[in-house]
Amino acid sequence: MSIHQDIIDYIVACVRQTRFHPDVHTGASPRTGVKLSRLARALALVRGENFVSIDIVKEIF
After folding, report:
1. Digits of tens for pLDDT over the chain (61 positions)?
2. Are the CB atoms for 35 and 11 separated by under 8 Å?
3. How far apart are CA 53 and CA 50, in angstroms?
4. Are 51 and 43 in contact (CB under 8 A)?
5. What residues form DSSP beta bridges with 51?
6. DSSP letter for each residue of 13-48
7. Residue 41 CA to chain centroid, in angstroms?
8. pLDDT confidence of residue 51
């Protein structure tokens, strides 16, 4: 399953934002990004897609 570098960068940016948000006590760890990308791949596969789209990541996160 293909995941474009731009999508990976978006996932990393989302995870990093949780570390600096004033309403979040403990931000997400790097493992969260890995798991988020795996979940996005799985969802894309179930939907019959050949790649992970930004919309799938936004839907999850």
Report:
1. 789 999 999 999 999 988 888 888 888 899 999 999 999 999 999 999 999 999 999 999 8
2. no
3. 9
4. no
5. 2
6. HHHHHHHH-TT-SSPPPHHHHHHHHHHHHHHHHHTT
7. 10
8. 94
